[in-house]
TrEMBL record:
Organism: Armadillidium nasatum
Gene3D superfamilies (alphabetical): 3.10.20.30
Domain of life: Eukaryota
Coiled coil ranges: none
InterPro entries: 2Fe-2S_ferredoxin-like_sf (IPR036010), Adrenodoxin_Fe-S_BS (IPR018298), Beta-grasp_dom_sf (IPR012675)
GO molecular function: 2 iron, 2 sulfur cluster binding
Lineage: Eukaryota, Metazoa, Ecdysozoa, Arthropoda, Crustacea
GO biological process terms held by the UniProt record: P450-containing electron transport chain
Protein name: Adrenodoxin, mitochondrial
Encoding gene per record: FDX1
Length: 66
């Protein structure tokens, strides 16, 4: 993982309706995530100020495994 937004900054209180709790992974680590990112997640993640191909919501990562 190369960058982490402070999880206490969840502007949406964990409802995954903002992009303040996103995580950015190295490509090799992102490829290990056990379930794909949905189109709805991608739509919301593109609002993150530092969006890239290896970003995921911190709150949503709890449902996934590396």
């Amino acid at each position: 993982m190369i960058a982490v937004q402070d999880a206490t900054l969840r502007a949406c209180d964990g409802t995954i309706s903002c992009s303040t709790c996103h995580l950015i992974f190295k490509k090799e680590d992102f490829g290990k995530i056990d379930s794909p990112i949905t189109d709805d997640e991608i739509d919301m993640l593109t609002l993150a100020k530092d969006y890239c191909d290896t970003v995921i919501f911190e709150i949503d990562m709890r449902k996934r495994r590396l």
